[in-house]
Amino acid sequence: MDCVLRIFTLILQAGFLVAENKISHVQGVAGSEIFLSPHIPHGFTIRDVFWRHSNEIVASHIQGTTQTIYQSRFFERARLLNNFTLEISGLEIGDSGIFTSLLVDIRGHMKQNEFHLTVYEPVAQPAVQVFASSSEEDGKNCTVVLICTTTNGSNATYTWRADSMEQDRVISNEVTFDGGHILKVILAPTDQDTLYTCTVNNPVSQLNTSVMPWNSCKFHSGADAEVFSCKMIPYLAATLILLFIAMTFWVLLCTRTKGKSRQKEKQNVEGVLLQHTPDRPNQDAAEDGPQNV
Prior knowledge:
Blueprint: H1 2-14, E1 16-29, E2 34-36, E3 46-53, E4 56-62, E5 65-68, E6 78-80, E7 86-88, E8 97-105, E9 109-120, E10 127-134, E11 142-149, E12 157-163, E13 174-177, E14 182-187, E15 195-202, E16 205-211, H2 222-276, H3 280-292
Parallel strand pairs: 1-9
Antiparallel strand pairs: 2-7, 3-4, 3-8, 4-5, 6-7, 8-9, 10-11, 11-14, 12-15, 13-14, 15-16
């Protein structure tokens, strides 16, 4: 490592930099690989090559010997190909930055190439949640809130598209929040076949998910409410009939039970009275006996 740095410093001191400095902007996908190929002018015979990431030397080719620096974060991920192209595998978000290739020819002339690399995480399949409620004004329209989310993806942007079977129809009453992440729309009965698509994209990937939000609020319309009420009438009638039968049976049972209880109480009272009533004819005969004598 120290040897390479010393050689690199000596070359910078001894040589001179060609005025042309080519800058390229490159995008990479996390987990994949990327190839950075320097521009080599015609007639430029390369003797040495140095690749840097910011101020860190990643790989070098000095007088026919190729070397990757083991202290580098790219150790075992960087490879210098025969045409001096730098290959970086297993890209990480932290690999973003400026890569510089310094080419030195046999006369000590140098040429520099800059690659501004940005690594992105690809977006995942988005999920769309639908929250619907009936309109309080006329009961026909439906206010819908659509929330689009994705679990992965750096620098992701959200866009919405409404597609209908009707051609050239303008979809109105749409409001987006949170950078397009949330969409609020008022649907009319004419929007029953409207398909809303959420597209999530970044510079390296794009995915979308579609939903038909009217399906979540169709039971809130007046027509559906009438159909629902008509379907419920037989069930309500059957319930009332069963309730009437149960109440009638309960009343009859209570009446019969009370009748038996009253009859039993009457019999008990009569028995008590018979036990406590004196034998009046015998007493009268006993009282009249002495008078006759």
